[in-house]
Predict the structure.
Amino acid sequence: VLEVRDVQKTYQVGDDIVVHALDGVSLQIRKGDFIAIIGPSGSGKSTLMHSIGLLDHPTSGEVLVGGTDVTKMAENELARVRNKEIGFVFQAFNLLARTTAIENVELPLIYAGVSATERKERAIEALKRVGLGERLDHMPNQLSGGQQQRVAIARALVTEPSIILADEPTGNLDSKSGIEVMAFLQELHKSGVTIVLVTHDAHVALHAARVVRIADGKITQDYFNKDG
Amino acid sequence: VLEVRDVQKTYQVGDDIVVHALDGVSLQIRKGDFIAIIGPSGSGKSTLMHSIGLLDHPTSGEVLVGGTDVTKMAENELARVRNKEIGFVFQAFNLLARTTAIENVELPLIYAGVSATERKERAIEALKRVGLGERLDHMPNQLSGGQQQRVAIARALVTEPSIILADEPTGNLDSKSGIEVMAFLQELHKSGVTIVLVTHDAHVALHAARVVRIADGKITQDYFNKDG
Ligand SMILES: Nc1ncnc2c1ncn2[C@@H]1O[C@H](COP(=O)(O)OP(=O)(O)OP(=O)(O)O)[C@@H](O)[C@H]1O
Ligand SMILES: Nc1ncnc2c1ncn2[C@@H]1O[C@H](COP(=O)(O)OP(=O)(O)OP(=O)(O)O)[C@@H](O)[C@H]1O
Ligand SMILES: [Mg+2]
Ligand SMILES: [Mg+2]
């Protein structure tokens, strides 16, 4: 359903430093997969997620959606696929600053053309699911770190995407809230959603069906958990 | 060395919502303590850290530094104490955006009046300690989440403060980097530094000498680990 083939992502810093954030990465994500991506800080996990999530074009290599090379797609078609099919939870949340929690969560539904009444209802529902029913009108700077993270999660789920890409979704959550989020994702996975998570949490990696390990911009392991 | 007495922190949201982020908190931090603050998302940990760190005035209650009520101190004296004695690692890092890693780490030394040559030397040393010797000239948006977190840690340590307040310093780090940071903090603690950490990591809480648990803006437990 999503695939990257021999992807390179290179950055230039100043005049003389070249960083190979991704150095020849190939990964096939099948419908219904539950993948945990693990690896050291700086190894390329977020960069890989941005390529898979169609948010960033690689320096070289191909990205395919349902078998079609995305570079052959028109920009508005790509944006439509992103909005309709993919829910992305950013490592730094990326919430709009002067926008309340409920407005932040409604945003992808506005883009999808959903009516105002239905939008509000679904945004409230999503925020209640992550335990933020009493923080609807708070701005991001009026929320704790873990609350901001949960708004980002609610926003990624509100369009009911078929693919969820979550970059360290429990990094700022206490173990109880983290367990609730993981249970929520497991539920969605059972109902057919494809899930790719970046995580530093060994427990999370143990519960994923498949584990992909990355180091220095390369995939070093790609295996299925026996019981996952 | 630092103390909060019956501190309340209340926020008003909109016209009708009142949030009691801290609801009568008293905590004495003794010289040489190693304290882990744990509790659910939204329970008041970051708010408590901002009060202890002299970054925020409580709505009521007292904050004392070395026995002196800070409300009796002049603002510039308070700023001097903060800069000289306290190193603060923020949950959201709070790095300056258009400033390189090394410049971000030099900032507290500029305020402290350290010479340019010594500043640069100490900033490079601090960044090397957290494994970022090859990222000195990167801007925050050219760094991974865990790398930004480590720049924030380096910045908090570069003034060699007597008190380190770290709000979830390993939240974005893989277990190996997280272990290195904790080993670094343990080393500093052995050399006499007072450490207060907010953490969601049960392992970190196990290694602290003292654990303070907070829920709904109140301290519910304050105990010493037998072996800690
Ligand atoms: N400026 C503000 N205005 C209104 N409410 C606020 C504000 N800042 C924080 N709060 C509320 O105060 C409570 C405590 O926030 P705090 O950031 O201290 O929590 P925390 O324990 O650090 O949580 P986390 O583990 O998620 O980081 C939260 O419920 C939050 O919504
Ligand atoms: N815009 C950029 N310019 C230069 N280098 C960059 C840029 N963005 C990322 N990098 C570098 O690319 C590498 C991979 O970054 P990435 O954010 O993918 O790491 P990560 O595996 O997500 O790390 P973490 O676990 O710390 O979040 C890092 O070494 C980082 O310094
Ligand atoms: Mg990352
Ligand atoms: Mg917090």
